[in-house]
TrEMBL record:
Name of the protein in its database record: Tetratricopeptide domain protein
Domain of life: Bacteria
Keyword Signal recorded: yes
Pfam families: CHAT
InterPro entries assigned to the protein according to its UniProt record, in alphabetical order: CHAT_dom (IPR024983), TPR-like_helical_dom_sf (IPR011990), TPR_rpt (IPR019734)
UniProt entry tagged with the keyword DNA damage: no
Transmembrane segments: none
Signal peptide range: 1-25
Organism lineage: Bacteria, Bacillati, Cyanobacteriota, Cyanophyceae, Oscillatoriophycideae
Organism of derivation: Gloeothece citriformis (strain PCC 7424) (Cyanothece sp. (strain PCC 7424))
Annotated CHAT domain residues: 618-889
Keywords: Signal
Amino acid sequence: MFRRLISLTILALVALLASLTFSFAGLSPTNAHNPVSDKIAQTPLNLPQQEQQGRELFQQGKIQEAIEVWQPVAETYRNQENWLNLASLLSNLALAYQEVGLLTQAEQAITESLSLLPPQPTSRESLQISGQVLNNLGLLQYSQGDVQQAFNTWEKGETVYKKLEDNLGILRSKLNQTLALQDLGLYPRACNLLIETLELSPLNCQNPKLIATDQGNKNLEILQQKLNTLPAQLDSIQILTWRRLARLLRVNGRLNEADLILKTIFPRLSSPEDKANFLLHLGKIEESKRQFVQALNYYQQALENPLNLKTKLKIQLAQLNLLILEQQWQSAASLVSVIEPEINVLPNTHTDFYTKLNFIYQLKLLKQAEKNYRLNLNIPAWEKIIFLTDQIVQNTKKLGDKQAESYGLGTLGSLYEKTQQWSTAQELTKQALLMAQSLNIPEITYRWQWQLARILKSQNQRENAINVYAQAINTLESIKSDLVSSSQELLFTFQEEVEPIYRELVDLLLQPNQTGIISQANLSQARDTIEALRLVELDNFFQQACLVTNEKKIDEIDPEASVIYTIILPDRLAIILSLPQQPLRYYSSSVKAEDLETVTAQFRDSLVIRSKRDFFPLGQQLYQWLIQPLEADLQASGIKTLVFVPDYALRNIPMSALYDRQNQQFLIEKNYNITVTSGLQILNPRPLKEIPLLTLAGGLTEPRVGFPPLNYVQQELELIENFVPTDILLNETFTVQALNQNIEKAPFPIVHLATHGQFSSEFEKTFILTWDEKLNIVQLERLLQQPTRIGQAAIELLVLSACETASGDKRAALGLAGMAVRSGARSTLATLWSVNDEGTAEFMKYFYEELATKTVNKAEAFKQAQLALLKNPRYRHPFYWSPYVLVGNWL
């Protein structure tokens, strides 16, 4: 998959800049304002007509022609001392000058325009012109990258329009404020501003992962009621406002509301341009749902009518981006041949820069695909792409937009990187980086830091590369809360834009120096980097910076435990071992990432089929890679508990089933307890034996909404009741309301849910089934951590005994990790696949019997329960005893 943050960012900027709300004060022939005397003078009738002609040319993108029409009109107003109309026209000229890179003239025009306004405008005409000039001043500031100042200016403009009671002017100001808020990363605030403007409260823009289903339905009702009251005909500003709200709802993940707005208003549209833009956004919604065929259909419909060149290119580039995402290489190459001549005729204006740069980026992706897949796509050669990009950058420098220039220079640097022209690539990337840092734009800064680090690494400048990689990660860490809570459209694609930075740094840190040694400092930094990666990975899963870290060393948690960090690198499996009171140790197995993932997937598949026995050689191979290199050190240290921090592919397999062929033992049969965690930073350790084991147990035995019955769940819960005090909710009594009421009235340290559920790398597909609904992770969190529990002990153990990781999803265990950390429970016991529920009843009987003795910790009780099943001839196959995993605190 080739989607990239910079591509998404550019696409979003193209959409934003193309929809900037310009303000042209359409004053009828009137008197101009004299700064001193308020003298009013009549203007000839043909001047307003010429102004209107210039506006039409400007809106068509014919900027230079608009300037040529406006300049003589401005000179006439100046000769007539027609100050108000001159102020209005100069602010429009300033925008035009800015667009074509005449920065000095733009500055002079807006400065003169402001000087012609009365200090305290009072007449309706002077207030109208003041509002227009402030609006256009904000646009100039926005185009120059001064987003906060633009927002402040538009707020002042809104105040002026409020004095005029000019609802259209107020709406225009608020629309432009939303642009600034989005650039500042404040997407929910931008969305809520439009909701307030359209009087849609109590609708809000909260992340859909944080709202209940009934609240989502209420939001749709509120929207539908408002949309039903709209007139049959809407003016252009109303259309833009609703389209902008739909976009903001979409990028905040509120796809249903966005879809409702667009489909309700679409029949009211008459302009082909408006229809095309709405179809574009409908396509984006389908793309967000990963319904790519439907998305392409919308894009194709949008292109059926003749369109403005800029609108047409915007849709074609969205189409191209999707074709590349779907790896439809020949179709994408054919579309390039259509787009290229149209791109070449675009003028060198500010808004058109991002369109051109987006096209260059798509060309780069296609060139990469051509090489990677040995295709013949007839895409322009690298030399031509570099030449075109250099021209774009040179033109950008004339526009005065340093942010755009940083994008251009960085992109040009990336092209030289691709062609291995290292010194030029390094120089251009440094320029782009310095520019982004001076503008304080960290979401661009980290990109160029990463690019520079790669270039340094390619030139064997290892230490410098390590330092720059670390800087990129520090930049990411500083903005991750903004990124995960902001626009989904601008959100980084984690697996391609964030994770590689951490892994590439770890790869460098774990390479021996010239004497064959990896220093303790490098090992420590590599371990900390992996811990940080696990945290940001979970934040990305939730799209919310929600995890509280608690940095501790293994020595402080359990002197008889070791932590095993497994790191899958392209050419090897790296392992860092952390033992109490000892230096970190490093091991590696020479296996390619794709080979390791293949064996891991085959091992998992062999375990879930009870008739198979080919898990032995696969388990042995994994044992040789994962355990054998460090086995002697583990045995010498007297360790009792192995705490795995597994990498992606390794999370979907049970470590307990790794097989030592020499001793004919599964790993669980050795002298180790086995547990899993996402990292020590999110552990909250406390021994379970210190507290009473009051348990709330819920489960289903009857079929529900497509899920089969779990016949032995009642037996499972009754067996638990034999060992610990238990309140049971079964079938129709196992409802969300009943869970809530029980948790409110008593501080249960153990919550045991024997029901269907699924863990997935996609938040929306991770759930627990109750009698009346599916609970997602956030809903479960609210249930288990409700305000009435404040001051009570945390839930020590959450047991999910009939869940499974989603088949075909190699990162599915991320959902389990997410459930574990967000439930608020110190430990989670769950299953990797749908297990035999009779065997589960037996497992839980042994587990709770051990816990009830209060002489062992959770990890030891867990191990003894697995061994009890393993020794039972009925359950000897790993299908029965190995899917159980203990995640989190093992004490």
